[in-house]
User: Fold these one by one.
Assistant:
Number 1:
Amino acid sequence: MSSRVNHFKTIPALAKTLADASMALGKISLDKKLKHLVDIRASQLNHCAFCLDMHVKEAKMHGERELRLYHVAIWRESPLFSAKEKAALALTEALTRIGDNGVSEALYNELREHFSEVEVSELTFTIAVINAWNRLQILSQMAPGSMDSAYGLDRAELH
């Protein structure tokens, strides 16, 4: 198989801008564990192996319980997630798989029960950025785990 495009080499300024956005998201008020759940769920929905691998490892390194990581795919049925986490995961699905009706009033009202306006915006940016990364990685087809040592993800001890 021929190698695919490397966005960091072809358009480094744009790739850096997206990387900078990701770094900025690391400084928002949104709980890091919740952000990892969002990144994992969007990556599952988008079938992005590289990002899913990376975000599961990051979540584990930041103290997420393994059983909860296994349950992200079944979050609706799982008793392991709070109502707030479920609202965030529902928004992740709604914005990752945008349907004809967008985000329903019911979902928006549910979000507002658990999140401030600022937090809803932070959550929306988090979802937008992971979806952008998923699309770039799906096209480039970087191998899952190929950047572990560069990103320090080998410390997750998930092999």
Number 2:
Amino acid sequence: MTSYAIIETGGKQLRVEPGRFYDVNRIAAEPDTQITIDQVLFVQDDDTISVGQPLVEGATVEATVLQHLRDRKIIVYKMRPKKKTRKKQGHRQELTRLMINGISVGGSSVKSAQKASTAKAKSAEPAPEPDASVTDDE
């Protein structure tokens, strides 16, 4: 089971996981800077669930600003039939790409998906075989 949080940024709610990147509405921060998001609505860490009313007390999400970019163009076309009225507009939303570094609740860090998968891989390694040089001679 993976750990995740639901955060609010730019007027929207996002489900975020550590080690993944997300595009959100433009944030006033330079690329390669660390930011802390404290608008955390929900946190799940394996079997532990924290639900905020409306925010989870002491919960933060650490993120790094990767880059600023623009979304694809959206065309807005308005026309009134039989009136010779046509209006065409385009819009590109300004975005910021965030890499989620970690989720913490009350100062304690929530395990990331990468750490959990590494721990599972180490525990799945076969145990070393016993020494084969010892034999029964009769």
Number 3:
Amino acid sequence: MSTKKVVRPAGAPAPVGPYNHAIRVGELLFCSGQIPLDPATGQLAGADIQTQTARVLENIRVVLAAEQLDFASVVKTTVFLTDLGDFAAMNEVYGRYFTIDHPARSTVQVAALPRGARVEIEVVAHA
């Protein structure tokens, strides 16, 4: 029986609610959605979708690295955008991080995201 392990890396922005950065069960890592918070300030990083997407993915990099994983380990992503008109610009930045064996992905438009973010991304990774 697999045990549940809480993952809270020191270099990631603090959660904005009662949740953890990720939970590991066996070979799977379930990462909470990340918004573009600068870990140093706790504030949103940039106003444009490219800057926000890069910050989100850098935050995800920290969570993955805490479990000795990287973007090649990711098997599924869900991208939440407040405006699907931002899709192409988000996708261009996203493609810099997921370069081989792209994960399965869903992208949806939502009415709003925490702290006024334009993008949130959650991932599932396999060790």
Number 4:
Amino acid sequence: MISRVGSKLILLMALLFLISFCALPVFANIHETIEEKQKELEGVEQRREDEKSALQQRLNREAALKEELLAIENRQIDLRRELERLVGEIAVVEDEIAQAEKELAEAEEQLGYQEDLLKMRLRAIQQHGVVTYLEVLFEAESFSDFLTRLHNLSLIASNDLRLIEEIQAIKRMIEEWRDELQEKRDHLVSMRQQVVDREAELERAAEERVIVLAELEQEISLNLKAIQDLEREAQELDNMIRRLIAEASQFSGISGSLQYPIEAPTWVSSGYGWRRDPFSGAQAWHGGIDIAPHHGAANYILAAEAGKVIFSGWNGGYGNCIMIDHGGGTVTLYAHMSSLLVQAGDIVARGQRIARAGTTGYSTGVHLHFEVREYEKPAIRSFPSGAADHRYNPSGYF
């Protein structure tokens, strides 16, 4: 006969067995989900990098298009100036052509008048015959008068011919001048048309580039939105993974005081909160405490609590940095070490040596920068002041 206490003990053991048995697939499912979400996060980050790469290419193309548009605009300005110059030269040449036409008309008028006189004389000679000239000669009163009359007749005929030749020469010169001016005008008109055609080509090129630029700016806008969406998705996935890790973690967070994170002898060189920045001299927020070993020794850094190393490596201003997840969304951070003894994924015990003190990153001397962060809180917290939660008060750490 089993006693009542014995039956309760058996029932409790059965419940514990059942809980343990059921928990195994639950944790297995959580780990599978974590792996799936991590792969999903990697895919999102890869897509984000692809979008960033595409964005950079489009930004480069945008800059090139704007430079091309500026070059086209400058070329259009030069062409308009060239067109104005050609129009001015054409106007000058057309005025010269008009002047040449006027002078040519006057020369033709003089030539016509002179030719009419010659024709009149020739008609008189034809009507009266050579006898008329002979009569003029024979009417001479003396031989001297005869020679004089003959000389005068010769002078008149020679003068008529000379004038005609001179006028014809002037006419030919004016015609050549006019033809040269006309050729010059035709050349200038052709050049003006070439400038007009080139300007039209540039206008079409500019319009095409403006259209491409507008499309490119639209694509850039879509790129930026895609990057923002992917960053938000990545952040959501990262938060989800952190929650899942916290749920699946074998660590339950920090419940008591922490292990002092560096081997003695040491002293606290800078506290938590507002302080004067050692580099700029301005007031700056200090999100942890700095603990310096005596005489700058490379003392060992110790894990403040058992947990899983989630980061071990160079971390910008932190220099060589380690982050340990203790479960419950609580992480401790150790910075500026000279060397690291653990790597991401390692499980560390409370008080385990994880690094050696140093002065890497933004540091003015050998020390440990130590922080406690709560990722499940709305904001990252490190040693909040006040006694509301003494676990995160420096005086309540160790």
